[in-house]
Queue: 4 jobs
Job 1
Amino acid sequence: MRYTRPTALALALFAVACTDLNAPTRTGMHPAARRDAAASPCTVTTLAAAGAGSLSELVADAACPTISFDPSILPGQIDQGGTLAITRSVTINGPGSAKLALSANHEGSVVVVRNGTVNITGLTIRDGAGSDHFAGGIDVFPPASLSLGDVVLANNEGVLGPGGLMSHPGTSVTISGSTIRDNTGDHGAGGLWLEGDADIERSVIAFNHVGFDETPGGLLATGTVTLQNVTISGNDGRAAVSVAGGVSHFSYVTVTSNAGEGVSVGDAATLNLEESIVAGNAGTDCLVAGSPLGHQQFSVIGGTGCGLPDAGGNRIGVDPKLGPLADNGGNTLTHVPQPGSPAIDIMPAGELEGCGASRDQRGFGRPHGDACDAGAAEIPGTFQTMTTVTAVPASSTGVGATVTFTATVSLPDGSGSNTIFGGTMTIVADGSCAAPGATLGSAAIAAAPVSVTTQTLAAGHHTILACYTGPDLSRSASAALFPAASSGTMGYDIIADGTPPVITPTLTGTLGTNGWYTSDVSVAWNVSDAESAITSRTGCGASSVTADTPGQIISCTATSAGGTGSSSVTIKRDASPPVIAFDGPTSYTVDQDIAIVCTASDATSGIATQACPSATGPAFAAGVGSHTLQAAATNNAGLPATAAVTYTVTVTPAGVTALVARLVTESGIANSLIAKLQHGQYQAFVAEVRAQSGKKIPANVAAMLIELAGRL
């Protein structure tokens, strides 16, 4: 029956970073800390060991389930001068191991966890000095569990205990994306002593030391320990790893370049070893005290130890051909297999649901191609880089115009580009990389693609080549993972210019009628020449018309290799409606003549249409009472206007008297009627008018005088 690998690590923590501790490392910031740590009750605001806002105060505060750090105190180091004791569940989200260190100043263990579920990310834990079987860095006591992510555990020392970390029976420890290095212990282990359950992934255990030769330098496992995508290198002691009890599972682990044995398995322990590399150590690479290893397959073993057969996909007694421990991408140090390594493509991808791990220690995908590599670092299945070149403008421009060519180097599987490479990129025009027609520019490949800008290409079709050279693709002094140079090619046209620039205005505003604007008008110019560069512009900036005008001319002139072009626009703006005016009195007596004149005018665009009535003639003809004149007009810009005026006609004795004098021609009758009006004898007045109606007084005049008298 086939062995089934244990499930993936219990806690998938975040991408990690190492800090510089006398060896090359990569720096970074844990994603959980990439946020604005604005001061809050659970934010550390001081680097002091104790007091308000200190880490120790917040750890002791049960009201703080999650602790973060104020960016204003970073980067820095908290010098505790002793141990940080944790007795409850808490999450400490550090800003990144490169930004903040927690130090005990060699005055005790740095951290002791006695209870709860504790998560620590983004810190360097250093300068601890444990005693009486305490670890120098971190001690974990039951029933506690501890998770570490993006943690650098370094420069800690244990007296009668391990240097880096010790977990006691009944505890659980998870480590992800972390570095355990340069720790010293004289009992248990230099780096980690794991008596409880532990899962470690995507981490490196390196350069740890012991004061007692029989003690393992890197890791002592007596509980149930799972390692996946882990590098163990540069440790001293009798062995780098000692599996002294329990059942341990190692997959995609690289154990190499250690001063003693690679892996030692006690007779009371079981180690399942898969897709791993145990080779290149100073002592025996693999030493098994009792029966052979448990489940084992697809591993590379440098010597004849371990009792593994040279079968089942294993490679026994061979040189794994590893590069040195270095920054090969990702955020922890690795040994990368070199061309010709037996670790490359050792296991078909279909053997165990792909590779059984979708990523390597660096976070690069597995597999590359159809098969999986042994060890912590996967490499592409081909050693040829790919280079591409692009241009802006994309495919052509004119003589003298600026064009930018950009070259990008990438791995054939798409797992990385530019940032994981060294080498030089040279961009040339025509010819070949070895014999270019013209060199446009050259630069070392850094954190971004290489770009060059030129205006010197002559008219015609050109072949642009991006020529990449340099074997240092892994950023390792001796590793040449992708030794073959590569180049990218594109065609590009430089067009001779026989025409001046094309100048196009854009007018923004409210357009009325007859080409008139009724609001402010903004003018913008687009000047282009597909064949050559624009060498000068006059009047082509943005402008606006904000006052009424019968016609303002705005011009733009531009010059290119094809000549000088010009464009003008005439802007007519009338944002004011017509003016309608009524001239004349608005109050009349019946004997007066009405004289009201209506006029409509527009000073800018003029009147297009109007209905503007006037009022003239005898007031008595209009009738007694109020009368309203309504006027409307529209200007040539399309803006309308309306207006109205009301005038009144009133009856007075004097007014009727004046009408009698004007309209009754028989003087005797006129005088008689006037006398009656003057004496207020209105009924007698009406009787006399009625008697003379149609005789001495025209009937229509008589009817009017009777109606007016009735209003007195």
Job 2
Amino acid sequence: MAVIAATCYAGVEVLDGAGAGDELGAGAGAVVGGASVGFGLGAEAFVRAGAGCELWPAVGATAVLLCALWCAAVRARRRDGDGDGDGDGLPWLAVAAGLGPVLAEVPASLCVVLASRVAIPNAVTTLSRLARKVSLESRRSPESRLPARLRCLMAGTRPRSWLRAHQECPSAALSCGGCQTGITGTAEAGSGHLAHGRLVSWYMGDAEATWRVLIASNRGPVSVIRGDDGHLSAKRGGGGVVSGLSAVADESEMLWVCAALSAGDRAAARAVPGGLLQPDLAGDGAAVRMLDIPPVTFQRAYNGVANSTLWFVHHMLYDTPNRPSFGPGFAREWEAFRRYNEMFADALADAARAAADGGGTGSSAADGAPSGKSPVARAVIQDYHLCLAPRMLAERAPGTPIAHFSHTPWAPPDYYRMLPRDVGREVLTGILGADHAGFLCQRWADAFVDCCAEFLDAEVDRERGQVSYAGHVTGIGVHPLGVDASQLRARAAERDVQSRMAALAEATAGKQLIVRVDRTELSKNIVRGLEAYRELLRRWPEWHGKVMHVAFAYPSRHDLPEYREYTAAVQRLALQIEDEFGSPDWDPLLLEVNDDYPRSLAACRLADVMLINPIRDGMNLVAKEGPILSDRGCGLVLSTEAGAADELGPHALMINPFDISDTAQALHEALAMGAAERSRRSKALAEAAAAMPPSRWFADQLEALDQLAVG
């Protein structure tokens, strides 16, 4: 009974402290207070139930359920403060306010079920998240700590050890959704669990934070899927950024911060404190923190700004007589984009401060930290989605070494000026908040520097590769991303690829194969590639029956109307080619739109010619993967507008991506090329493609940061 009384008292104490202006705010006070009072009443109710009071199980279950609903309502109210003005928290408030009278009529048995399945997991998650904030706030500003009685309650040995056991052990008495739905669907501790013990310890305030490298990107290394049985499982994330970074994500001292994109991602993020999960990435790999970004904020930031504006500008895709048109709607989207970047900056700043406070792992020049300095987490922020985050992070965690890397092209000033003036300047100053800004080729780096000089009047030192603005110097570097050849070949030798190779070889019946593997992305120029193949068959009929175009065009961004129409255009043209040239014994084209990674590897192994013809592309890793994988050696038809052209151009057949006749000519030359010449070119292409594997590419960026710190 003393424990029950103390728990209730702690809840009332926090409510009183919150009302008196505690710096953690009334929201946090209400969460802890509500949970404490509810658990206190619930515990007393069940004690009375044991003494034979038949009414008290319902009262106890109702109390616990109401406290959880209270927590949910407060969290929803705080979530509605994200600045998007969508009122997404109001339904929860209505539910919390209206359920009291209803629960009075609920049978005791149902109350017990609701309490065990809904209330307790909700309250546990809420308390766990608050524990993290208590830890970080108490470390950062001692004067804002909660009352001593509550600190003892939150930081005492029993609560902490119970929570850690709860996170690690699926058989804990009050197991929540996080433990029941492990990332690998297994109860084995340390094997892909959603919350690793080290991560929970960090969030509970132990001085065990050892993050040395922080990665931030919109898309993470894994995508979480909820199965029909409710269990969560993970598969490799998609996209070029993930392809490049996954090879270096097997570092135990690395934290990868990303957005929760799918329903499965959000379920995984909500199941553990702070959205931390630790999937198996080549063993005990990087920790992953998924940010549960409000849907409206994410939609406006991702589709409204990142994909419909910044992507279009950097790839020069606009139909300028009609688009873009910037007005009040875009202003709302830009505010959401700011908020999206702020959420990443906040998460990175939390991790950077925790690493600085708890980094007792030691360092040396050999392991990447400047000699004589205490361990500091270095942040490497990825791509155009997070172009504002470097400056935001620099403001939140001064002294943190920051790099930003652009995986896209960069628009030249004459096209970049299409952005609203303030927006264009904010993007540039955001990246210049980093200590190092990296690009995939010199052409894109030069365009960025030109924009800084044109729109910010920044001081540019092209010889030293530096831009000075507002008293800060940003180093500019070129880091062409390559392929880990041995890892890629090993993956392509696995059984699932072998079986798809056999099926594809049977379907193509010994014909020469022109292969392309792309997303149905406007910049990939798939339609003009098909038009060039049609012209090849028209101009050189000797190839009829001897060649086949294998085109894998996987869905991309179908929530944007331009992409849906483009996919339809690809399919229409493919049907026209089949109707014009197909015969009972020859299919000129195999078009597949369903994503199948092993099948893509199989096609590259069988390729005689790889067709890569983007309008503009930051790099294009398929251009590098094809020659590495090709069993017979392949020719490469490559656009001059791909970043990979800088490295692969001397050994490829280069084309103007807008000239379908030029492309058709190059395809003919590649098909007619002698075996010895094709083999020589393919070998040279493979060597160039493997010259900068992801591990070295990433290490070069960290080295550039360290050199700036030493300098």
Job 3
Amino acid sequence: MIRRAIAILISCLAASLSSGAADLHSTAYRAQEYRAIRQRLLHGWGTWNSSNILEQVHLPDGAAVAMSFKETNWISADYLRSALIGVQDSEAPSVRPGLHALDGSFSEYELKWKELEVKITSAAVGDGTDDLVTLIEPVHSSALPHEVFVAAKMLWNQPGAVSRVGDELEVQTGARHLRVHVTASPVPELYAGQDTPYLALLLDSPVGISVGHRRSLDEIRSILTRQRAALLARAAQYGDNAATYAGIEAVLGWNTIYEPKYDRMITTVGRIWNEEYGGYCLYGWDNFFLPYACSLFSRDLAYANFAEHLRSLTPDGFIPNVDEAEGRTSWDRSDPPVGSLMLREIYKRYGDRWILEASFDDLLSWNRWWPRARMNGKLLEWGSSVAGNPLHEKEAHTRVAAAWESGMDDSPMFEDVPFNPRTSMFDMQDVGLNGLYIADCQALAEIADVLGRKVEAAELRLRAEKFTREIEALWNPGAGLYLNRRTDTGEWSKRISPTMFYPLIGRVPTTDRAAVGEMLSARANCFISSMIFSSCVASP
């Protein structure tokens, strides 16, 4: 036991000597294997521009074919130049997303704006070329005239040139020469509101766009049908779960973007947040769940998302609650520790040792941070530390920010619980955090075993054992449940949440606690209703 403790002490000392700026100890995105993955991902057509789904973007050169629309009425003309899914604004277009292949090879959506309603479908041709086809179909006829403008442009200040040559657009990007064709005859519309070369087309019937080879409407429809069928065939392998599989792929596909600051492909929580926060927004635990979800479809994108999220690691050694394009990071708070859990599951699927090696030290740094920064007595609690705040975030070191660290910002669990500015934590011990932390220690210990990191594996298991013992103080025999407990009054919290079950993730209940099974059955109905509530019971 003494020898084991000495080994752990040595490893902790080594970790403290190696601490420094985040960029110095975040290694996953520098790995040679990841560089090859990144090169493979940054290729081909897709809805890669986070701020506008009306653009099909070609990587790695940043060439884009953009659609915009014009509606003319008796007194004015209105223009639609961009669209996003889910914007809650009466003046914004309504977008109903459809299928979306994760690699960008197929996408479909319906767009409704003023009197215009169209279906837009795009596909990479998939014959070894860089060809693209898009079909714009009016859903119904309109009393008002509409036009669609097809423009060519270069995004993100990438080098290139675009021009109109007759009834075509040309894009020159280094060695690549792209031609943009349309199936209708352009009209001489000068009031187009465009700032790059464009083709104006009346939208009184379907319009096709082809990049590369010129293709007819029938040829475009044939390619779209083939690519859609290929997507559905992949989903069909999952039988009764085919629709679920296709739906998950679509959600991930619509939220996978090219991020130019770090020249990378990432999957984000939502494009609206990306736009609001300056270009991209990564959230602490959300962006560890996303690599796992992507692993169902793409090894490359799963690894890319995991490696790039670790880039967010702060100089203090933790994954922040939020990391944004404009340099804003939550220096004061983290997010639930699920990174090691997700990495372990991804490894089980693919078995690539390099991603474990590249990620381990960052995850270990985060694991060590929790007891250093969030010990409230003998257990952990959510908090918000006194930290650098160069952009003057008003909620830093407040109860609001402490709730944000939990990943459940508005959870009733935190109502009436004081935030203690002296400890920088809620006056409570949280079942969910401690349950997840035990599971994090166990998962990271298993990763250490694979890597032969015996000292760190022993350290992690010792920590898991300690918190497994201490969390028993939160078992309430009368409730038959683990409950949060106030540290200022010693009272049990009466607010029940799904987080009360998180100890089960780390296999905390002992074998003699048969009551846990009964508790699960008895409490299940608490969380069932006609609506989904992820962080509170359906009824008191």
Job 4
Amino acid sequence: MDWGEVNADPLVADLPPSDLTETVTRTTVIANESTRAALAVNQLTPPPIISPVVESSGLMSRTWVLWFQQLYRNRIGGAIAQDTSYLEVEDSFVSQSRRPDTSQADALAMFGADSDGVKGWVKAQSYQPQPPNSITKEITGFASPESVIVTYDSTTRKITLTGTVTAYFQGVLVNHSLVSGWVSSAHDSATDHIYFLYYNGSAFFWGTDVYPGFDVLMIATVFYRAVNKFALRECHGMMPWQVHQELHLNIGTYRRSGGDISGTTIGSTTAAQRRPDISACVIADEDLLTTNPALASKLYSQRYIVGTNVITYSLAAADIVPLSVNNPYYNSYSAPNWGQTLMPANSVQSIWLFEVPVTADAGSQEIRHVFVQGQWITQATGAGVPAMAKALADELLRISSELYLGNIGLISNEYVAIKRIVIQYVGGNWSIAGEYALLGSRYTQISAPSSNFISSVYANAPITGTGVVSDPLVIAAATTSVPGYLTSADWNTFSRIQSVYAFASLPAGATGMRAFVNNNSSSAAFGSAANGSGSTTYPVFHDGTSWKVG
């Protein structure tokens, strides 16, 4: 059929079942003369005839709703109507798209918009309802996630949404109460819990500690502790929930741009030169972009574990690592407790800079850039440059996935490490030994190596070990009975042995000689000859058969 043709007669189209999903087997579309004129004049796109008209929820599918919405706007006032009547038209469509009787097999879904003689409706015949809890791939999410401003008030325990907050749940527009300025109910007041704000198709809810699943419209996650209360943005874009689940589990958060460190000097023990500035950083929690503003205050947020499993933040700290005067601490573990241990002399430690997609409120913004304290040190054999360089190289073999970040479950994929700052403690003071960018997504940073990586190592004597951090490959020094490496002491002993020996001249008829070793400073009998005499010396060599004097 020609959807752009202008004709005064009613247009009736019987669509064969092959053009529809199993939900609708026969659809009749009727439009009067004014509708047909609108199609031609405004170049309206053809209706989505390959999409079901009515979903199992009893609502007209979003694709058909949008088509009639476009028809309505174009006919009434063109582009002006599209701008001025958006919310009014949206509400009108949603309120009139519900199926009257969900129990009838032959169901009717009707939309009507009557203005200036424009009418349009859709009739779905032979409706086949889907089984309860059947999988639906209708989109869920916010229409413009980057334009949603999420703010958390830790005093009222509520979330506020401003900006462009239009959202859909399984293809259906979330009711008209979700507008800019929307405020949630308060979550529970119990501390030391994680609260999840979401919409499940009928109402908004706060979940506690357990992630509500990917088949809901997520809005925000709140970490509500006795201190350090903050929230994360979760206003993802529109996608089937199965896609969101796969993106979360297999990608997680990653850095898009920015997050550069400046203002530091490698090797300097001057306090001001080990306090970095951080440029604005754009991170993506799957599809959701968050821009963390730059940090130039020289005040830092530190993160570490205390006790058996208590995540702790130290805010507005003067340095990136906890200190005792000029001696840094590392976050040590001695089962079952985590604690603080001073770095020993001639050691190095990694400090990890994480980016977090926090909400816009001041309290949450304090941890947008957070420095996670190292949980181990690498000890050097001395304070010399070669020894410290070797310790630094060994430290860089450790990776961020070895960090224990607390019992946070699925939320671990919501933030990402972007920088590694290695510090060293030498001569009673500390400095930055190196700064390194970290690549990849949060998932790749915490995943165990597989595929083309070595999975195990087998060692033969004199080499021992399995090649892991806790059991490295080693070789012991050789002894009189056990093979191994040559020690420096043994090497010095061998190096004193001269390659050419001198012997005294032999008188006529002599049958032997005496060898002089170490520049003729000592002598030893050679063969069965009698003592020799004279001042001339001769080299002794072996021709492959016997020793000879040359």
